[in-house]
Design a protein that fits this description.
The protein has two domains: about 5-120, NAD(P)-binding Rossmann-like Domain (Rossmann fold, 3-Layer(aba) Sandwich); about 125-270, Dihydrodipicolinate Reductase, domain 2. Helix 4 (about 80-85) runs parallel beside helix 5. It has a seven-stranded mixed β-sheet, with helices on one face. It has helices at about 15-25, 40-50, 55-60, 80-85, 100-115, 130-140, 160-165, 185-195, and strands at about 5-10, 30-35, 50-55, 70, 90-95, 120, 145-155, 195-205, 215-220, 225-235, 240-250, 250-255, 265-270. By secondary structure, the chain is α/β, with parallel strands linked by helices. The model has no long low-confidence stretch (mean pLDDT about 95).
Length: about 280
């Protein structure tokens, strides 16, 4: 069986998830890794059995045996690196968010389309069993007409979390609680409710010494006519409280909760006696 050869760019906080997933997949091989701190790259190479390590991602992209690149760098670098990978003919897996602006996101998509490579953004919460069950119910039409929904992310990130790396909480390389911590649930909200027609919101920085928001709220109108609410924060003392997705329709109500939308809190439909999953 021919395996796909993977390369990881950025050997920081999230990269080990990619390395472990590649290692567990019989159709994948970790060919090479890259980090500007060579010690990190060498450590990943040795730990996960990669064949090569680099400190310059442009050099990694020149490897003719490389098929797929996982981009695990700070968010502000995602689009630039993804575009370079696409031009080099490599398929692209990029950590969330795929970019920090709509312009950069569109340019990344365009580069992948023009060079005939696949583009995947890491929204793994879509595969949580409760989320999959919700999606199947939605596709089966069990909700009837959707009326409204909400995505609530009440998490805690202390100041020392941001102080651990100079790029965290910056406009250029990270974003705030909406772009970083809450993006998974916002993705789920849009996946369930469809395209957004209009949005209005407020953001503020109440407690953290960062450039971006630590609290954000928004009201949405979807093209279907349904309404939505987003509440996001990284200031909920003293620890992560909840990540909740609420979907309401004329014939059904589902609330997914837990720390990371991994638990069915409420499950009620007209066409079934099912309750609470």
């Amino acid at each position: 069986m021919k395996k796909l050869n993977f390369g990881i760019i950025g050997c920081g906080r999230i990269a080990y998830k990619h390395a472990e997933a590649i290692k567990k997949n019989e159709k994948a091989n970790l060919l090479c890794v890259c980090d500007v701190i060579e010690e990190r790259a060498v450590d990943y190479k040795d730990k996960y059995g990669a064949q090569e390590h680099y400190t310059d991602y442009h050099e990694l992209l020149k490897n003719p045996d490389l098929n797929v690149v996982s981009i695990c760098t700070p968010s502000g670098m995602h689009a630039e690196m993804g575009i370079a990978a696409a031009i080099a003919g490599k398929h692209v897996i990029v950590e969330k968010p795929m970019a920090l602006s709509l312009k950069d996101a569109d340019e990344l998509i365009k580069a992948c389309d023009e060079n005939g490579v696949k583009l995947a953004v890491c929204f793994q919460n879509r595969f949580n069993p409760p989320v999959q069950k919700l999606r199947h119910a939605l596709e089966a039409g069990r909700f009837g007409k959707l009326t409204h929904a909400s995505a609530v992310i009440r998490w805690f990130r202390p100041q020392d979390y941001y102080d651990q790396a100079p790029w965290r909480g910056t406009l250029a390389n990270d974003g705030g609680c909406l772009m970083n911590q809450s993006i998974h649930n916002i993705d789920l909200l849009q996946w369930m409710m469809g395209p957004v027609e209009s949005v209005f919101g407020y953001t503020t920085n109440n407690l953290r010494k960062i450039e971006c928001e630590d609290v954000g709220v928004a009201v949405l109108k979807f093209k279907s006519g349904a309404l939505g609410v987003i509440e996001a924060s990284t200031t909920v003392y003293p620890e992560n409280l909840e990540e909740t997705l609420n979907i309401f329709g004329e014939k059904g109500t589902v609330i997914l909760g837990g720390i990371a939308v991994n638990k069915i809190e409420t499950w009620k439909f007209v066409d079934s006696k099912e309750e609470n999953g």
